[in-house]
Amino acid sequence: MSITAEDFQTVQKYLFEQSGISLASGKEYLVEGRLQTLVHSEGFGDLHDLVVALRANSVNNLGKKVVEALTTNETSFFRDRHPFETLKTAVMPELLKGSSTNKQIQIWSAASSSGQEPYSLAMLLEDSFAWATDWKIHIVASDISEEMLDKCRAGLYTQFEISRGLPAHYLPRFLQREGNQWQVKPKIRDYIDFRYLNLFEEWSGLPRLDIIFMRNVLIYFENDTKKAILEKVLRVLKPGGYLFLGSGETPVGMENRFQPTDFSTSACFKSTPS
Ligand SMILES: C[S@@+](CC[C@H](N)C(=O)[O-])C[C@H]1O[C@@H](n2cnc3c(N)ncnc32)[C@H](O)[C@@H]1O
Q1: The domain spanning residue 45 has which CATH number?
Q2: What are phi and psi of 39, to 5 degrees?
Q3: For the chain, what percent of residues have pLDDT higher than 70?
């Protein structure tokens, strides 16, 4: 059954208010497809019944489940490769040469989806910078989806997920067999704290960051929302800190505060004073 224009607008408005995600007209097919599973699992007769319950806020946690169903969680290990190369060959060596008095490097994987991005970062750090024993290197990974965060914390991946981007020699080093899946070893998991954070709300409890990976999430927001998020990035990123966006993404409306680096194949930007 096709979604009515009124029901689509209800979902559009709800999603925006809860997450900042902008669902353009023409995406009716996406709402129909993604909410179908929820219609069945929550025992609704059809999509319209679900939207009525959403409007009336009459079913516990329904709103959260709708938002989760409508977010795109596509990710993979070492996605796009180049940002990780840049981190390894340029950014980390520069930071480790610096004169930070407390010898800490704080990294944030914002919108970490099912965890492949923060685990890729942790594996890279363990592989290339384990020698920096007098430094404390820490990763915060966050997402709006509790379902994704559960997957992150479990650190369990199928063979198919492993085959998407994980270097072959990392498999025995950093993961172990768990039934018919692979689980990230505690040594790698210990680098990361996973937590809920909605980029569209106020951010609290983040450390001052040296590096932010905010990749493939700003694309879901309108320009005003992107700008508001990038303004918040400047409040938590140290001056001269690095922001990695998805390939092809740019700091829209904030170009004067994020200088493109000369690491040409990565969407990597250095924060500059106002
Ligand atoms: C396409 S994935 C990107 C994953 C990873 N950063 C990458 O590049 O592979 C987008 C993620 O953004 C999350 N997301 C969407 N809106 C969000 C919001 N308002 N706050 C935090 N996370 C959000 C989704 O739940 C999803 O996991």
Answers
A1: 1.10.155
A2: -55, -45
A3: 99
